[in-house]
Structures are given as C-alpha cells and as structure tokens.
Write a structure and sequence with these properties.
- The N and C termini lie far apart (56 Å).
- This protein is mainly alpha-helical.
- Helix 2 packs across helix 4, helix 2 crosses helix 5 and helix 3 crosses helix 4.
- It has a 3-stranded antiparallel beta sheet.
- It has a single domain, classed as Winged helix-like DNA-binding domain superfamily/Winged helix DNA-binding domain (Arc Repressor Mutant, subunit A, Orthogonal Bundle).
- It contains 6 helices and 3 strands.
Length: 133
C-alpha cells in the first residue's frame, strides 16, 4: 500500500493575491483582444488564427493544437476567413497531401492592424521611454 501523501498546504495570502492579479491581467487581455477583433468584424478565435497565420503558414492540425481546439473547428474558422480573402489554403511544400493555411496580404494587414489596436499593452507602456521599454 502506497503511503498517504501529506495534506496540501493552503496558499498564503501573497500567493493568492498574485494568482488573482494574473487572472485580472488575462481577463483584461481577452476583453481588449475581443474588442479589437470586433473592430475588424472578427471573432476572437478568427483573430487568434489570423494572428498565427500572419507569422507563418501552418497545417490545419497544427493550428488546432495551437488554438487548443478540434481540427473541425479550425476548418470552419479557416472557411470563414478564406471567404473574406484573409486566408488561403495551399499544398504543403514538404507533403502535397497536406494543406496549410496561410494569411493573404490583406490578412497580414488586418493582423497587423489588430495588434496595433490592442490597448492592453500599449497604454501602460506609453509613459516609458524607448530605453525603459
């Protein structure tokens, strides 16, 4: 019989405060991201996928892993972005049986505008000089 593990210690007040603050930061980021996405008539998942593809073309399966969702969900998101001319499907140069999704020029422009529109990080850093950043 395995020994019984000792009871888990309750986190101290400082740890709990840090966890709560991290939660606040994450919530604020998502609110700002959703608002910026909406300004481009995108949902949050569409904006996140477009942002990933603006960096590099990715196979659908890898997109699903990065977005932590099912490949069938990614297919629907890519379909909608493709219909708007923001994304295109291409054969993978290493394995032509595999399709990769890639941001179009317009998709990269929208992704750039979306990043530049995020107030979450920009506002707190505005008071800092370039050297301080």
């Amino acid at each position: 019989m395995a020994p019984t593990p000792p009871p888990a210690r309750r986190p101290d007040a400082l740890t709990m405060e840090v966890v709560e603050l991290i939660g606040d930061v994450v919530a604020r980021f998502y609110e700002d991201y959703e608002e910026a996405a909406g300004e481009h008539a995108l949902t949050g998942p569409q904006a996140r996928l477009l942002s990933l593809l603006s960096l590099e073309p990715l196979p659908m399966r890898k997109l699903a892993q990065r977005l932590k969702c099912e490949p069938s969900n990614v297919t629907g998101i890519v379909d909608r972005l493709e219909a708007r001319g923001l994304v295109e499907r291409r054969p993978d140069p290493d394995d032509r049986r595999v399709k990769v999704a890639a941001a179009t020029e317009e998709g990269r422009r929208v992704a750039r505008d979306l990043r530049e529109g995020l107030r979450f990080a920009r506002e707190p850093l505005e008071g800092l000089s370039d050297a301080e950043r």
